[in-house]
Amino acid sequence: MKITKYLMGLALVTAGMLAASCDTENIGATYEPKEANVTFLSEQPEIELQEANAIIPVKVVRANAKGAYTAHYTFTGDSYFSDPNNGTVSFEDGQGSAYINIKATNLEPGKKINFTVTLSDADVATADTVLNNGIYKTTYTVMRVYTWIDFGKGSILSQAWADDPASPVSWELDFQKAEGFEVYKALSVYEEDKHIIIKINGDKAIVEPQPAWNYGDKEGDAFVKGEGTVSGKTVTLALEHYLPSANNHSFGVYTEIFTLP
Is the pLDDT of residue 60 over 70? Predict the structure, then answer.
């Protein structure tokens, strides 16, 4: 069965200009926090790194910067990460922000990994009840990115994009290769600027879950995942197309044959 793409029209919403009037005669006193209100800035930041080894700064802030202060935390994470700070981060008098420097070593390209930093109960107790905006636990998702080099033109023979899967359609594709790895990126396969990364290990190939085309504004991206075989420059994959936003609703599994440059 052919996968039908729905091109959802963008509704243009004309918003009026917000006019903010300022009454200079009735300016209230600026609120001065009385508690430290130690907090992180984000609950789930994602970062990309170029190098295998790096220092990842985790920013900690406080609302009341009067006096020196030492915050305590617990650290958990994948084996690639370590915490050389002994679970403490210190603020000097007048300093509103400080950094927990997490050490990353031997990061593998293309692999998403995590670590979590959680403030101690004592530091959570410094929350200012008026501000009430504390983030006391932060989980970082970290990935070392590949260095991509242009590899040339190849092609795809696709069941998924054919009117009849028994009569697959073919078109040219540009490819990139990850420097130093048997990893290939087929550019704009089903939709402009949505690429598919293929990892090869000997005569086996795998496509890890990744967005491949947009189903609609409401449903978002359809993903592909699958595996297959390699013979010379020919990569034959059984790719499932599915919607994560709709409880992984599947459009089916299709044979997609990629020919590398």
Answer: yes
Instruction: Identify the helix (H) or strand (E) that includes residue 121.
Output: helix 121-124
> What's the pTM value of the predicted model, to 2 decimals?
0.66
Q: b/e for 12-35, b at 16 or more Cβ within 10 A?
A: eeeeeeeeeeeeeeeeeeeeebee
- Residues facing residue 103 across a β-bridge: 55, 82
Which tokens in the block code for residue 182? 């048997």
What are the CA-CA distances from residue 43 to residues 54, 70, 125 (Å)?
A: 21, 21, 18
In the block, tokens 């790096």 appear at: 54
Report, as an integer, the average pLDDT of 18-36: 51
Residue 183 clears pLDDT 90, i.e. is over it = yes
Residue of higher predicted confidence among 31 and 199: 199
Per the structure block, which two tokens stand in for 39? 């907090």
Q: What does the alpha-carbon distance between residue 94 and residue 68 come to, in Å, rounded to a whole number?
A: 8
Burial of 89 (0-12, 13-18, 19+ CB in 10 A): buried
| Chain center to CA of 72 | 28
| Minimum mean pLDDT range among 13-22, 88-97, 106-115, 162-171 | 13-22
From CA 243, how far away is CA 8, in angstroms rounded? 16
